[in-house]
């Protein structure tokens, strides 16, 4: 028998893609499925970005690029960070990668090994824990609580740090909860990290442009006292509706940058050239497309929250960021994953069970409102009918 290394027995996956596949299979059988499971904007990539990618291909940009990304895109990332966060970063600290997950993969590989501990948000993006377990490190969940508005608690996070802690992963605005951690809490966390100078920080800010109601996003890049151990993660997938283009970027402290570059060389060589030129157009071009998309999400958010709070046994906080709602379904009597499965199979509505996002996800399901208003209303009506008629068990 072929034998692969035991680490692959520990690796998980992102169940949103499994739900997407099942929804597709049901649709292929003729079922009408409303998919609120996948975290993907339903809008097309803005035309000026598409045209930039096409122009790059026509201009002959068909070959390899530097493993760290073309200079023009790294400079555009630095300009974008200065514009949005009022923080200067050198383009020489920017690494262009194929999507957001690659930065997680690199950072966790650098610090994860047996005997080490890595803190990650829970409920949170499932790839954090999957990769931590793959490396043999111990995953330590940082509880993300509804009672705290789905923001992380600085005090609770700092209390989990031990001499074995190597990396702390943070995510705000957050997937799957839509929580946004306020600046005061981040200030307290950074102050407390002064007592733990050997702990690196990975700040996943992929939803950093996506906040509502005047809520401000505070970037960890704005804290010079941790810049020498901060890894910043961002990308184009959510902000510019470019999920399929596979374009992300990260900012690394100088001591780690060359290690990240070597991982890029050993894994993906470089991001495809045309996508990188499209990325320049996204960052340097007009940003009204982002504002229009966020206005649409905001309108949908209102419908989703109102509709969820009208469902029997369901309550839902208003998300402050991203495009997810994370309703509490414990009052329905259903276990979360069983409810998500039944909603898909019986009601034709795809959602994700909270436990797919961590040990603290029981009692919740995730809905993406990156879908049309009509589809959202249809999904809510189906959910209401299902919960009225169908009891657990």
Blueprint of the fold:
Layout lengths: L14 H14 L5 E2 L11 H12 L12 H15 L8 E4 L3 H11 L5 E6 L3 H10 L2 E6 L10 H6 L5 E7 L11 H11 L6 E5 L25 E6 L12 E4 L2 H14 L5 H12 L3 H22 L14 E2 L10 H12 L1 E2 L1 E2 L11 E4 L4 H17 L4
Parallel strand pairs: 1-10, 3-4, 3-5, 5-6, 6-7
Antiparallel strand pairs: 2-8, 7-8, 9-12, 11-12
Helix pairs in contact: 2-9, 3-9, 4-5, 10-12
In summary, what is this structure?
The protein has helices at 15-28, 47-58, 71-85, 101-111, 126-135, 154-159, 183-193, 254-267, 273-284, 288-309, 336-347, 373-389; strands at residues 34-35, 94-97, 117-122, 138-143, 165-171, 200-204, 230-235, 248-251, 324-325, 349-350, 352-353, 365-368. The chain has 393 residues and is α/β, with parallel strands linked by helices.
Proportion in helices: 25-40%
Number of strands: 12
Radius of gyration, in Å, reads: 21 Å
Q: What profile does the largest beta sheet have? A: 7 strands, mixed
Q: How many DSSP H or I helices?
A: 12
Query: How far apart are the first and last residues' alpha carbons, in Å?
Result: 41 Å
Q: Determine the mean pLDDT.
A: 97
Structural classification: alpha/beta
Order of helices and strands: HEHHEHEHEHEHEEEHHHEHEEEH
Oligomer: single chain
Trace the largest sheet across and list its strands.
2-8-7-6-5-3-4
**Uncertain residue ranges:** none
Portion in beta strands? 5-15%
What form results from the Cα inertia axes? globular
